[in-house]
Design goal:
alpha+beta, OB fold (Dihydrolipoamide Acetyltransferase, E2P), 3 domains, 5-stranded mixed barrel, 4-stranded mixed sheet, 10 helices, 16 strands, elongated
Amino acid sequence: MWVIGVTMWWITLIYKSLFSISIFPPFPRLFGHDFRKTRQDTTGISSHFPKILPRKVIGNDGKGDTEQALRYRNMCMRRYSILSIGTAVLACVIPFATHAATYAPDALLGKILIDTGRHGEAWYVNPQSRMKVALGRPEEALTRLRDRAIYIGFVNIARLAERDGEKTDAAYAKKVAGFVLAPNDVIGAAWYVDPATGLRRRLATPDDAWQIMRVGSPVSSKVLDAIPSEAASPLVFSVATVKKAVAGNMLELNDGRKVALISVDVPANPDLQQAAMAKLDALTAGKTVLLEKDGKDKDDQGRTWRFVHAGEANLSYELVRNGLAFHEIDFPNYKYAEMLIVGSLDAARLKRGFWNH
C-alpha cells in the first residue's frame, strides 16, 4: 500500500513539472468539474489548458481570464499534491500501527504455549517470525523445533547453564531466551533456551521435546487466535510393527518392508551379526516402533533408511554403545551424530562388545 502512495506522489511531481512547460494536457474532469472544449490559446499557455476550466472561468463568448485560469490550475494541483502525499503518509503509517495486533507480543516470544480451550494443544511462538508453530505430538515437536534453530558456535551455547546452580552468562541467556540453538561446529545437537529460567534444554529425542512441552504456559484460545500461524514442518515420523531382525543393522516389518538403521555399521563377523540381531529382537520383535527419517530416504541398495525408536531407545545408539556396531556418519544423515560418537567412546571406555578384545 505504501508503494502506491509514494508512486502517486511522484507521478504528481512529474506531471506538475511537465504540465508547467506545456508538454501534456491536464487530467480531464479534475475534481468533478464539467470542462469546456479546447480553444486555441494565443497567450503562451498550453492550448490544451482550457479543458480544465469551469464555466465560470470561460464565458459563453469563449474568452477567459488568463490570470484567473492560472490561479485555478495551481489550486487544483495543490489539492492533488496534498491528496497524494496524505495517501503516502497513511500507507506508511498503517503497517506500523497494525504490527502489534498482527504478530505475537514481545512477552510471548520464544514461549511454549498450551491452549486451555482446545484439549491442551501445544504451540511454540517463534521469536524469528513472531508467529506460532503447532507442535503436535512429541516426535513432531522435536522436528519442528529443530527446524527453526539458529546456528552459532558451540562456545556460545556453552555460556548457558544446563542445570540450576551452574555458572551462566545471564546477559547472554536473556538475549537468546526462547530461541532454539544449534552449533555450527558440532553435528546433530540442538538446545532450547527456556525463557523462564535461562537454562538450555537438550533437543535430541521426542522425550526431550515432551519434557519441554509439558511445562508450557497455559493461555486462552483467544490469545492464540490473535497470533498468525507458520506452516508446519513436513512429518518425518511414522509408526510400524517389527516382525524380526534380519541382519545386524536391519529390521523386517510386518508389512514386508525392510528398514536399515541409519549411521551404524555392524562388522561382517558372524558372531557380532548374531549378537546385534539378538539385541534388536529383544528390543523390537513383535512391538510397535517409531521410524524417523533423516536427510536421505533410502540407502544405496534401495532399502528404507531410518532411525528406529523403541520406547526411549534409539536402536542405532544401543548397538554402538554396546560395542555391537561402529558409528558411520554420512551426510546428510547426521541428526544423532554427536550422540553416536559419545556412545562409541563409552563402549571403548567400558570395553563392551568388540572393544573387549
